Amino acid sequence: xxxxxxxxxxxxxxxxxxxxxxxxxxxxxxxxxxxxxxxxxxxxxxxxxxxxxxxxxxxxxxxxxxx
Length: 67
Hints:
Elements: H1 9-36, H2 40-66
Helix pairs in contact: 1-2
């Protein structure tokens, strides 16, 4: 069900799969849209934020866990 915490491994795997698909569609959709509209700087900003933010957040979590 929507907006409920997964209770089994299968539900959690399904939730991760849905999240991955949404993320991928958002990334590709933005790249296609901004390319078609000729918005080069916006395309680069979209790419940087979509790929850079998860990496930065992961590093922050890992560095705070290490201290």
